[in-house]
Amino acid sequence: MDYMYLKALAKINLGLDVIRRREDGYHEVKMVMQTIKMYDRINIKKQEKTEILVSTNLPYLPSNENNLVYKAAKLLMDEFDLKQGVDINLFKYIPVAAGMAGGSSDAAAVLYGMNRMFRLGLSMEQLMERGVKIGADVPYCLMRGTALAEGIGEKLTRLSGCPSCYIVIAKPPIGVSTKFVYENLHANTLQYHPDIDGLIQSMEENDLQGMCDKMGNVLETVTIPAYPVIDEIKNVMNEKGALGAMMSGSGPTVFGIFSNLERAQDAYYTLKSGVLANQVYLTEPYNVPRKE
Questions:
Q1: Are residues 107 and 11 in the same domain?
Q2: pLDDT number for residue 128
Q3: Which of 31, 126, 198, 275 registers the highest number of CB atoms within 10 A of its CB?
Q4: CA–CA separation, 188 vs 205, rounded Å?
């Protein structure tokens, strides 16, 4: 196998709680992660030279070791002493630095693809063990679907899939530093914690409204005061009939959950034609069956 054509899927956080800041500086989290049907395209081609070539459709993205797809390829090439290199073409569609794990998903796709191309024989668990060396979200992006993430995000438990719905994604034309958000989050004195267990229970019961009622993201307590446009986008989605709207990850992307396609399309076109967001998408959840 000399070529592979892969899709790297995005994620949103249906629930994001920070339990505490640990003594080592890391934050202990409890999150519900959900893959959605938005993706980057990645083409991997073997080449005779033992080198890694990366090209992208976005000129501002690095094509060297600062790109996570490069790091993923190098990790496997070094460990298995591969004598052939790879030429990776990355076509980005997931918003960059937007709380949707685009870079982590790209790295996960490269790990998966190279494992098959070079017949390395790694299991999913072994790929996930390597993925965490690249980034905390990479193991989840290999796993896909719906999962509870605990610890510092590395403990993953497969959950029942998200109930059928339509998801509007809107990213405002701003960048938000994850470091800024966590540094300004007073994790040990938070007054609000979303009901993650109740959220999971609603998903088990296939209760979309119940799920949306229990969605919450404690990072909004930092990001919305600093960037009020996030709240403005949430308000538009709610006014257009969203069952729930929330910021994903550390932002600034906002998503709205709709049970009705026409209402979702109305929100999509309203945001698409407005000034609050410069990237707007309409998609659905991507679920993976849970093995009992």
A1: yes
A2: 94
A3: 31
A4: 32
Quick one: 12 and 64 in the same domain? yes
The active-site residue out of 11, 71, 214, 240 is 11
Catalytic option among 17, 71, 137, 214 = 137
Quick check: 42 and 106 in contact, CB under 8 A? yes
Domain boundaries, position 7 = 3-158
Tell me, yes or no, if 11 is annotated catalytic. yes
Residue 63 is given by DSSP the state: -
44 forms beta bridges with: 4, 88
Q: Is the pLDDT of residue 292 over 60?
A: no
Residues 11 and 113 in one domain: yes
Q: What is the mean pLDDT of residues 22-28?
A: 77
User: Could you tell me if 121 and 17 lie in one domain?
Assistant: yes
Specify whether 137 is catalytic.
yes
Question: Letter for the amino acid at 4?
Answer: M
Q: How confident is the model at residue 245 (pLDDT cuts 50, 70, 90)?
A: very high
Residue entry with tokens 């267990």: 197
Q: How many domains does the chain have?
A: 2
For 152-243, list the strands marked E by DSSP.
155-158, 166-171, 216-217
Average predicted confidence (pLDDT) for the chain: 93
pTM summary value:
0.93
pLDDT at 117 over 60: yes
